[in-house]
Amino acid sequence: MSIGFGRSYARAAAGRPALRLLGQQSGRELCTRLPRGVEPTPPAHELAEQVAAPLDTLAALEGGGPRSGQTAPVHLAGPSELLCVRVLPALAPLVADGLQLRVAQGLTEPLLEEMRAGRHDLVITTRRPRGRAPDSVPPADEEYVLVASPSWARQVEEHPEAGDLCAVLRGVPLVTYAEDLPIVRRYWRNVFCKQLTARAAVTVPNLYAVLSAVNAGAGCSVLPHSLCQEYLDSGRLVLLHASEEPPLNTLFLVQRPGSDADPDVHRVRDRLRTAARGW
């Protein structure tokens, strides 16, 4: 008798009354009685393959955790651009080493609420959690840069008023992910010490779309350096202004209370802390 089938069928028959009628409901003979015990039929083996994994999951939940030899996935969440550009590449070696990872994207406050509800083990946020928040540490600072395509950069450089960059930029379309231009306004305020009065020429859903539009020549924008570093290195984008003190956004790694007992959560947390030193 198949051990896997025997365990699965025994759990099904003994622990789930609805499954006791499975053979009758399927209209197929699942077991052949022997002088001692039973022998599964071929249809039973097929059924066992379908139900074994869900039954193991239920057994793990009933037992308070994963079965021996199994580990639960680490649930990680954060901004989509940062996850794709920095976080997932940093965690790839752990995944290759057997780590199970479940990743979600979103904004800081909704993700923290989901963490409090137990949906995430670790959340990367773009600001320090408010109030009595879970444990958090600042792993890195994200630098913002003003960029455009080479064609727009040449127009800015060759403009008769090139010495007054803010004046020249009034003629360059602005691409942002929100109508109120939050990142761009902050750059103008912190770097140029001026209030931005221009409106966005293009608004798109996220920073990846901003990067795509600017790279295609739609105009200029302010982006996280990590997101556009590859484009700057290859010359597809150009810095319009090199600030000695560019605006920074501190990133925080927040851990859910009660997840300390999971060694894989520690592995992910420590790996991200180490990787962040090079961001």
Secondary structure: number of strands: 11
Order of helices and strands: HHHEEHEHEHEEHHEHEHEHEEH
| Content of β-strand | 15-25%
CATH class of the largest domain: Alpha Beta
Number of domains: 3
Question: Which fold name fills CATH's third level, the topology of the largest domain?
Answer: D-Maltodextrin-Binding Protein, domain 2
Q: Give the uncertain stretches in residue-range form.
A: 1-20
Percent helix range: 40-55%
Give an account of the 3D structure:
This protein is an alpha/beta fold and 279 residues long. The protein folds into three domains: 3-62; 74-138 and 253-276, D-Maltodextrin-Binding Protein, domain 2 (3-Layer(aba) Sandwich), CATH 3.40.190.10; 142-248, D-Maltodextrin-Binding Protein, domain 2. Helices cover 46% and strands 20% of the residues. The protein is built from twelve helices and eleven strands. The protein has helices at residues 3-15, 17-20, 22-26, 42-62, 80-96, 108-116, 150-158, 165-169, 182-192, 207-215, 225-234, 263-276; strands at residues 31-33, 38-40, 74-78, 101-105, 122-125, 135-148, 175-176, 202-203, 220-224, 238-241, 248-255. The strands form three sheets. Strands 3, 4, 5, 6, 9, 10 and 11 form a seven-stranded mixed beta sheet that branches. Strands 1-2 form a two-stranded antiparallel sheet. It has a two-stranded parallel ribbon with strand order 7-8. Helix 1 (3-15) crosses helix 4 (42-62). The longest helix is centred in the first third of the chain and has 21 residues, at 42-62. It starts with a helix and ends with a helix.
